[in-house]
Amino acid sequence: MSNKSKNKDSNYLSAKESRRITKENRKITRKYEKEISRKNVPESEYATTMRDPQNILEIDDLHTYFFTDQGTVKSVDGVSFDIPRGKTVGVVGESGCGKSVTSLSIMRLLQRPIGQIVGGEIRLNLGDKAIDIAKTPMVEVQNIRGNEISMIFQEPMTTLNPVFRIGTQVDETIKLHNPDMDKEAVKKRSIEMLELVGIANSEGVYDMYPHELSGGMRQRVVIAMALACEPKLIIADEPTTALDVTIQAQILDLFRQLKDRINSSIMLITHDLGVIAEMADYVVVMYAGRIVEKGTLDDIFLHPAHPYTIGLMNSKPSINKTVDRLYSIPGKVPNPIEMPDYCYFRDRCEMCVEKCNGEYPPLHKISDTHYVSCYRFDEEGGKE
Ligand SMILES: Nc1ncnc2c1ncn2[C@@H]1O[C@H](COP(=O)(O)OP(=O)(O)OP(=O)(O)O)[C@@H](O)[C@H]1O
Ligand code: SF4
Ligand SMILES: [Mg+2]
Known about the structure:
Layout: H1 3-9, H2 15-36, E1 47-48, E2 55-68, E3 71-84, E4 88-92, H3 99-107, E5 115-125, E6 130-132, H4 138-147, E7 149-152, H5 166-177, H6 183-196, H7 202-206, H8 215-227, E8 233-237, H9 245-262, E9 265-269, H10 273-279, E10 282-287, E11 290-296, H11 297-302, H12 307-315, E12 364-365, E13 371-372
Parallel strand pairs: 4-9, 4-10, 7-8, 8-9
Antiparallel strand pairs: 1-6, 2-3, 2-5, 5-6, 10-11, 11-13, 12-13
Helix pairs in contact: 5-6, 6-8, 8-9
């Protein structure tokens, strides 16, 4: 059966087939859960070395799957990229391409048991040593969260609890990571953090409840909490999407200042290419669970190579361009449960070459910083 016809057929599963998949999934996820719940795992099992000590994080061939009743969703399917120290890496791609699942894998916050890291390494540089987060026991991962890596979500209320005052929540984060600090010192630090993120009336805000603040203020509080322990890496998943443009600009400014101040790295996930252009040093373009192109900001913005990236660039609004309507890439992403065995973008691609009928294209090196997964750049296929 061709993949196309499989795709069509897989829209509906019989109850029997669904039950079979559920049973099979239970077997698979039990195996992973058993591994995760192991006690007293020796450090030698998750200790690793960085390929380049200048990197704070190296994601290497990461595979994260969801074992659903409809089948296995390969949300992240062989993703590799580095986050250098003190740099911002922007991750872009259409809705559902695996951006959030990549970040949740780094934080080990996947919805378990159905969501599991099934392969690959996530190497975190801790200075004197490095660990593979994918294999690190959960108790250790809890120390990493907040201390080494912080995450900021799109909607601040995902992080804030509506029934507790702002001060209590910021204090909690600081106490968690500084158990020896006394109450007064914790409060002082909380207020300092609120000031740092540009909250003018920080002592007043300390006593307020989240609902008393605007969306922008709430996101500032979340950023204050994320920065409280001066993490080496900040993962921001659409941090400004829920905010209006003026507040968005202020929050981005804040990120830039804070990043320089604590010299941390940022993994910035966004749909907004304007935000990437302003903030990122490096850009990773994802499509259907894989990286289709990665490079420096200039590589991607000035010399986009993958037809999908070219489409994205055409779809971004510009003040120098008069258009009747914004370009959108025609067609849709393949069904994530039955991915084809050829280039995932082929059915939407307007630049196909003969080789595109073959297997999924390997990653091709255009320059030391610029990589693309497309046959247009393949040695034999040649460019265009
Ligand atoms: N808990 C889950 N159970 C099943 N599938 C999931 C789950 N979470 C994510 N997925 C699937 O994984 C894929 C990647 O999702 P992800 O949330 O990473 O997308 P995204 O790139 O962050 O999209 P968006 O831009 O809309 O936030 C999607 O196909 C999604 O349906
Ligand atoms: S490999 Fe072929 S089908 Fe895929 S993006 Fe490149 S040109 Fe298009
Ligand atoms: Mg997302």
